Amino acid sequence: MRLKTFHAKTMQDVMAEVRNSLGPDAIIVQIDEGGSGVRVTAAVEGSPTPEPPKVAPQPSQTPVDFEASHPIPIAKEYDSADVSSVLNHHGLPFETAEQIKQAITSVEAASLSDAYGAALDNIMRFNPLTDKASRPIMLVGPPGVGKTISTAKLTADALLHERSVHLVTTDTVKAGGVQQLDHFAELMKQTVSTAETPDELAAVLRARMAPADVTLIDTSGTNPFDMNELKSLLQFIQAVDAEPVLVMPAGLDPLDAQEIAGVFARMGCQRFIATRLDAARRYAGLVMAARPGYLSLAAISRSPFVADGLEPATAGSFARLLTALPAKSRPQSNQEQTV
Fold this sequence. Notes:
- The structure is a single chain.
- 40% of the residues lie in helices and 17% in strands.
- By secondary structure, the chain is α/β, with parallel strands linked by helices.
- Among the domains are: 2-44; 137-323, P-loop containing nucleotide triphosphate hydrolases (Rossmann fold), CATH 3.40.50.300.
- The strands form 2 sheets. An 8-stranded mixed sheet has the order 6-5-7-4-8-9-10-11, sandwiched between helices.
- The protein is elongated and about 125 Å long.
- It starts with a strand and ends with a helix.
- The relative contact order is 0.13.
């Protein structure tokens, strides 16, 4: 039962209010008449539960829509100073650094590495190597960048995935070139074929009885600024329709790295392996080499040991490397220096 009190000057007026508000079934509970008018307390019985609608009503906004239109702000663990410190440490050219900054400002991420990962996904190109390839993979690059070690690491990875491997080297000029790859191959119970000329390379690949899942070709160092050496390398690539993959170390000057990547891109390279990340602390050269129009970062090597393998390159993994700045050494006090 629902009670309600009404007040008017006359009984006629107050009863009209009762009927208008509670309807003709209202029950008069109490009447008080005084000098100020008439006060009536009336009541009405509760109505029965209505029948459910035949068609279920549709909400104007679902919980998912509500969350989308009212996103919960992400608590950031970094600020603009942290973003700038990473860019300044690695020494990125101004234009590229500004592009990364702008990309990060449009990203909703909690951690600095997540923000860089999302930004680098738009700034750089990534294309990891798989453990099975339809074309022979030929590792190319300047002298001493780690082509032979990278070849051995790719071999170990393929064998771990139970892929057959055909190892070939054209590095027959450098002292110990063949012996180094032979040593790694022997440890993995593999053999190495050698080829001194493009024709010999083609013959070696044709002579194999059963095609391997992966064919890896190690090459001698090629000066990217020597046209004769580039022409010689191109003949080897074309002789077997190989996919040339550049091997380039970290720590190069950013513009030098970009220029080298551009030269080998014109040789047919589409991807590169970054080596010696353990011996460098600034990776601007790798960022510049993987910019659109140059090469895709395929893998990284942070150790000279074959057992450590190559790590597939992704925006997230590379961002973690960029943002893991080395700790600054604490200067010794006078007391510590005299101990």
